[in-house]
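Example record

One chain of 288 residues, shown exactly as stored in the release files.
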Amino acid sequence: MCSRPEEWAGGWFNLRMADGSCQALPNPHVKFYPDSVQPNSFLNLPNVTAGILDRIDEVRSQGVEYLLRGGLNDPLCGQLSAVTEENDAPVFGKLPDGSWLQFDPRIVLEDNTLESHISDGGGLVRSLTGDKTKCANTPRTFLNEDQCSLSSSNTACGSAGTPLVLIELNSSNIIDLHDITGRYLYAIAGLPLRDVDNVTQPSPCVPGVRSRWEILNASECIPTPLGPETNSSLATLLQQRATIDTNPLLRDITFPLTGMSCSSNHNTLVKVDIIIRSQCFRRVHPDQ
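Predicted structure tokens for this chain:
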């Protein structure tokens, strides 16, 4: 084909010839002559005037495209695949007046938003396509956790579970994970502790609050002036956490409900740099 064909009967399509030129040919009606090869099977379609088969897009298609609004009871329906593959044989239909139509497969897009979920997360489509189509579900994150829902569909699908492997989330590994899984992985950095709407993260000294700290070289920081009580409590929590948290880039601590305290004037503390020996711990957004 030299160009995209006009899809309606009587329209034109252009074929490239052996000499490189393009030959314009009229697009014929679908027709099977008595002495030609007949389709192995075809669907019996209702009359156009029955209200089930509607003529659509008459200006663009010259009135030769139809939309089947209701289902069919034809036994052949059970033999057809629910998903049309590129090399599948065409599916024909025959109207009561003897004229022929050919099924035109189109992509059907489904809404899958935070407010309106696909009921099974795309599990049925994944099954019908032999797992070539991935689930539409995404892992739970701080961006979607308030809209998560539990599916009761018997075709529901989700993530494959947590792999029993520890992967450092650095730039090269994030790219490798994308290449392996075909899914995008996002690193979120630079989230402000106080945003443009003046929404401020709570002080790391508030009991029960989880705070995240970026680990830097001591030379990269200027320590925040803190009272002895505040400095001791936060430094102790960061050092204690190091015994079980081997992340070389970030460390999370949760201020205990009892047993520790900060100076009274640090309840509104937001931005903090603490130097412990050769390392600086800089307080960052909890979702970095």
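Notes: Residues 228-241 form the longest helix (14 residues).
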